Amino acid sequence: MRPYVYLGIILFCLHTANSLRCAKCVSKKGNCNETEVEVCSSYQDACFFEVKDFIGVSGTTVKRGCTTANYCRRYPGGYKGHLDRTMYCCSSDLCEPVDYHHSHTGAENGMVCQSCIGNEAECGQNAWSEPCHGNADRCIQISQRFLPGEELEPIIKGCGDSSFRDTLVAYQIGKDFAYIEQNVCGLRNCNNRSFPDISPGQPNGLKCYTCRETGKGECDRERLQLLNCTGIMDRCVHIISKDRDVPTTIQKGCATETMCTSYSDIYYKLMRQDSYPACCKKSFCNRAGDHSGPEMLLAVAGVVLWLALMAGK
Ligand SMILES: *[C@@H]1O[C@H](CO)[C@@H](O)[C@H](O)[C@H]1NC(C)=O
Ligand SMILES: *[C@@H]1O[C@H](CO)[C@@H](O)[C@H](O)[C@H]1NC(C)=O
Ligand SMILES: *[C@@H]1O[C@H](CO)[C@@H](O)[C@H](O)[C@H]1NC(C)=O
């Protein structure tokens, strides 16, 4: 038995000696301390350094740890609305993939807010606090529940200026309920909540068409499903791609009025910039595919014909 035990110990030592180690922490500036180190698993061959920013909210967050070089290559970085994410990677022991410095604009203004971007564990009630700078003298908390497959960063906290407003945008696409809640407050660390639990509520009488296009024609007219709207979702919505060549419906469902009235604000900041929502009030009013669809063309043709007739009189 003995030789096997020794062999086992030797293999174990070789294995740990070969294991990559990476700094591991979630912080503001990206400096993990010496004790915050992760021994990577055998399949992890890279250390990551992820920087998350949200325009207008001082919640800059750096997350570090072990990953795979393959994930680094496939990382979906860049802007999604006002959220910007970048990942740097390197593959040697305790390596530093980037020389990162975080800077502020303006002097400290006396306000202090919880600041972070991430999930409930990273950015919940016990998130770290930071002094605010310049004219950003409010504490902001933005919480989002996403449609399946659209998940990004559920919580964004930080200092922001007076342009932020309390807003709740809720929408239901098929059986999926999603929302964006933005809260603004003016006391030190008042953005200290965890994730809010907002429920869709009871049927409110409005009925809308619903679909979610995945490229298989789910939003074709004849395939639309019906949805009973609930709670404060008192508008039918359709979300249209901005792609000029093919303006197509991406989603239909029920929504709060804020989904459309705050379009330039919350939807633009938090959702894709390649689409926009259009709302209407009456049951089944969101049947038409998009504004340049056949119905609209027919209407335009009608007006032209009418004008021609009037001119002829
Ligand atoms: C390093 O970080 C750990 C975990 O966050 C913390 O418990 C510890 O006090 C820190 N050590 C130093 C020297 O800052
Ligand atoms: C959150 O902040 C408010 C206002 O500053 C304070 O009254 C409350 O005690 C805080 N809650 C927690 C859990 O820290
Ligand atoms: C919607 O509500 C109607 C009653 O108004 C009900 O008959 C129908 O089954 C509901 N549809 C769904 C999909 O729940």
TrEMBL record:
Signal peptide limits: 1-19
This protein's UniProt keywords: Disulfide bond, Secreted, Signal
Gene Ontology CC terms, in alphabetical order: extracellular region; plasma membrane
Chief place of localization: secreted
Residue span, UPAR/Ly6 domain: 20-107, 206-297
Entry-linked InterPro entries: CNF-like_PLA2_Inhibitor (IPR050918), LY6_UPA_recep-like (IPR016054), Snake_toxin-like_sf (IPR045860)
Pfam family, one: UPAR_LY6
Top-level taxon of the source organism: Eukaryota
Localization terms from the record: Secreted
Protein name: Urokinase plasminogen activator surface receptor-like isoform X2
Native source species: Pogona vitticeps
